[in-house]
């Protein structure tokens, strides 16, 4: 595993999460009507998911587990290797589902759900980053 590559991706992840946190309005109604905020949040959320998948794939390359066939399986493999809890792996797989909607079916996004995800589950990405950082400190 290339520590520098992973550290760069973790820094990019931190910036995406910060951007989401600073731009997501407290009131869901503001998000429903502000297309710029929708774009900023969906783009950075999609990037955050992709960065976690990329980091996970990088970690998997050094493990004795089969390579994932899908983005979501990346987190299954990390769970199988004992790096992620079942709960965190499931949360990250759900985030992949949102990313897929944001990328492929942008018109179908429910912004009330996105607002709830941002307000209640953004910490899942930070938890993943902590797991990765601990792995590199071992």
What do you see in this structure?
With 138 residues, this protein is an all-alpha fold. The chain has one domain (3-137): bsu32300-like (Four Helix Bundle (Hemerythrin (Met), subunit A), Up-down Bundle). It contains 7 helices and no strands. It has helices at residues 3-23, 28-33, 35-60, 71-80, 86-104, 111-121, 123-137. Helix 1 (3-23) packs antiparallel against helix 3 (35-60) and helix 4 (71-80) packs antiparallel against helix 5. It is elongated. The two termini are 13 Å apart.
What order do the helices and strands come in, and which of them pair?
Blueprint: H1 3-23, H2 28-33, H3 35-60, H4 71-80, H5 86-104, H6 111-121, H7 123-137
Helix pairs in contact: 1-3, 1-7, 3-4, 3-5, 3-7, 4-5
Question: Which structural category do the helix and sheet elements fall into?
Answer: mainly alpha
Reported CATH architecture: Up-down Bundle
State the end-to-end distance. 13 Å
Domain tally:
1
Strand-residue fraction? under 5%
CATH class: Mainly Alpha
Query: What's the total number of strands?
Result: 0
Largest sheet: none
Helix content: over 70%
Q: pLDDT below 50 for ≥5 consecutive residues: which ranges?
A: none
Radius of gyration: 15 Å
- Number of separate helices: 7
């Amino acid at each position: 595993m290339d520590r520098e590559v992973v550290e760069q991706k973790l820094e990019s992840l931190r910036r995406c999460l910060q951007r989401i946190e600073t731009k997501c309005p407290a009131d869901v109604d503001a998000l429903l009507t502000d297309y710029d905020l929708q774009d900023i949040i969906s783009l950075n959320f999609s990037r955050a998911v992709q960065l976690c998948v990329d980091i996970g794939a990088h970690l998997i390359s050094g493990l004795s587990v089969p390579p994932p066939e899908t983005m979501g399986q990346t987190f299954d493999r990390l769970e199988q290797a004992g790096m992620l809890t079942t709960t965190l792996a499931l949360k990250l797989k759900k985030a992949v589902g949102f990313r897929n909607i944001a990328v492929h079916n942008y018109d179908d996004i429910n912004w009330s759900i996105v607002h709830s995800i941002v307000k209640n589950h953004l910490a899942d990405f930070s938890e993943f980053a902590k797991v990765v950082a601990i792995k590199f400190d071992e």
